[in-house]
Specification:
four-stranded mixed β-sheet; alpha/beta
């Protein structure tokens, strides 16, 4: 499944498989959104599969957003396929503990 990025109700939702071939599209979208907004919400609830490189790039985006004094809240802790890979890469700390 191709990666689909939808933005509605102030939430950026990502659908499909997130991998090294399409993570740059999501990164560009996050960077553009970060220029316009102080608070970003990224939902990984509809991700079918994520690879290790993508988790590291999401971690970079999380840190870059914090460095610019903005907030990136990443939802997806309930998605087992996401949580499993993030555990392996030690990036689960970027996942929000709360639902928004």
């Amino acid at each position: 499944m191709a990666l689909i990025i939808k933005e509605s109700n102030q939430i950026i939702e990502v659908w499909g498989n997130l991998n090294s071939q399409n993570i740059n599209s999501l990164s560009r979208h996050l960077e553009l959104s970060r220029r316009r907004k102080e608070f970003l919400v990224l939902s990984l609830d509809h991700i079918d599969h994520i690879d290790e490189l993508s988790t590291k790039i999401l971690e970079q985006q999380y840190c870059n957003t914090a460095a610019s004094n903005k907030v990136l809240s990443i939802i997806g802790r309930e998605n087992e396929s996401v949580k499993q890979v993030m555990r392996q890469t030690k990036t689960t700390y970027i996942l929000s503990n709360d639902r928004i």
